[in-house]
Design goal:
It contains 13 helices and 12 strands. It is α/β, with parallel strands linked by helices. It has 2 domains: 205 residues, Alpha-Beta Complex (inorganic pyrophosphatase (n-terminal core)); 125 residues, Diaminopimelate Epimerase, Chain A, domain 1. A 6-stranded parallel β-sheet has the order 3-2-1-4-5-6, sandwiched between helices. It has a 6-stranded mixed β-sheet with strand order 7-8-9-10-12-11. The chain is globular and about 55 Å long.
């Protein structure tokens, strides 16, 4: 496996970990598999180093990730701000994982900005905004979980990755690559999977825990989305799905129920760009996916206050959901040549 991570960064990481007395790990708002996997995989490894470490999430995370070891001890900032703030006030080291802009913690961003101790960022998204004393920013790596493994390995701490830590790391690698169907073309990624298997993980069990535990309501929401809400625009090689507050409530929406839904239009022949619009209170959230050279990241940054990877990005708008969809459709003619090429 290539030693991709800068040597001076690894030396500083070892120094930070050695000196840390109380560490708090934070993933982004609406944490997905990579965010939770990175947080709990690193949490377990640091605990194995006899470190005092806590995980605080900005809000709840999907039930299909709550089997990961340590998830029951994760503190939800949204549900218990007082206890969470006490943890931050008592910590000397903050590690943010799978995001590079404190605004991605939304209502918790002020707490991160005001943190008085050492801040560490571990992330694989482009164009970092957050300012930290130590920043691991490697967009070329498949997932933050893969980056966590690389950092711990190069730091000489792979022995602290036990089976529980390895399961969490594998979960993030698997989910952030669509079960290794994209952003997973380097031999190193599969070398790391081999190392995780040596730790004793059961990859089939992990896969089943994540993908074979859908609720009936989630399946019915998916069915409704595909039958009634998926729109295909062949003239732009584009598809989209939009879901209102009322529709989500009808199917008793739970965090994570729309995970992966944006990928379905991309399964239609010749579709290269897909967007999922979901209404949440007074905001509309966008999840954008693309194939090939068309940049979902650029589209989200330029038009919907977002960003991410070239082929996977997110955005948001204060427009009503019908207005957001209309804006999106009105922009497509500008990108016709790119979408067709």
């Amino acid at each position: 496996m290539d030693k991709l991570i800068d040597k001076k960064q690894i030396e500083l990481f070892n120094s930070v970990v050695e000196e840390a007395q109380k560490i708090v790990i934070v993933p982004h708002v609406n944490p997905d598999g990579d965010a939770i996997g990175a947080a709990l995989g690193l949490w377990q490894a640091l605990k194995n180093m006899k470190k005092h470490v806590e995980v605080v999430v900005p809000n709840d995370f999907p039930e299909f990730l709550q089997w990961i070891n340590g998830s029951s001890g994760v503190l939800d900032f949204e549900k218990d701000k007082v206890k969470a703030q006490d943890i931050f006030d008592g910590a000397d080291t903050l590690i943010v994982v799978d995001f590079n802009d404190f605004e991605r913690a939304e209502h918790m961003s002020g707490t991160l900005l005001g943190f008085k101790g050492t801040r560490v960022m571990i992330d694989h998204h482009p164009q970092p905004v957050a300012k930290c004393e130590l920043m691991f920013s490697y967009p070329e790596i498949s997932s933050t979980c893969e980056l966590i493994f690389r950092i711990l390995s190069q730091a000489g701490k792979q022995q602290f990755i036990d089976v529980n830590s390895a399961e969490a790391i594998f979960t993030g690698m698997m989910t952030d690559t669509g079960n290794f169907s994209y952003n997973a073309n380097t031999p190193d990624t599969y070398h790391i999977i081999g190392e995780l298997l040596k730790k004793g993980i059961d990859k089939d069990k992990v896969h089943s825990n994540v993908y074979h535990t859908f609720s009936e309501n989630r399946w019915r929401l998916i069915g409704h989305s595909l039958k009634e809400k998926m729109v295909i625009l062949p003239e732009y090689n584009t598809g989209y799905i939009s879901l209102s507050n009322e529709e989500l409530a009808k199917f008793d929406f739970q965090p994570g129920d729309t995970e992966g839904l944006v990928n379905y239009p991309l399964m239609v022949k010749d579709i290269v760009f897909s967007v999922l619009f979901t209404e949440k209170d007074d905001l509309v959230k966008l999840s954008l996916r693309s194939k090939g050279e068309f940049s979902a990241n650029q589209f989200a940054r330029e038009h919907f206050n977002g960003g991410g990877h070239n082929n996977a990005a997110g955005g948001k708008t204060t427009l009503k959901i019908d207005e957001a969809v209309e804006k999106f459709r009105s922009l497509l003619p500008q990108y016709l040549s790119s979408l067709k090429s």
